[in-house]
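Risk mitigation, structural track. In case the binding assays with iron/sulfur cluster fail to produce interpretable data, a predicted complex structure has been prepared as a fallback.
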Amino acid sequence: MGYTVSVDAKKCIGCGACTAECPENFELVETPEGYKAKPKKAKFTDDRGLDKNKAAADICPVQAIIVKKA
Ligand code: SF4
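Fallback model:
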C-alpha cells in the first residue's frame, strides 16, 4: 500500500505547524502569496512515514493537508 500527500496552497496560511510536526516531509517555501507548505515527497509506495504525515494533516489548523491511500 502507498499513499499521496498534498497541500492545498489556497488554504495554507504558512503557520509552520506541519513542518514542526513532520520536518521529514514538509517544508515552507516562499511564494508571491507568502509562505506555503510543500511536501518534500508527494508519493509513497509503502506506508513508511504515513503516521507522521497523518499527524501533520491532523495538526493543520485549516485542514490544508490531504493524505490519501493510493
Ligand atoms: Fe500550511 Fe497547514 Fe502546514 Fe500551517 S500546518 S503551514 S496551514 S499546511
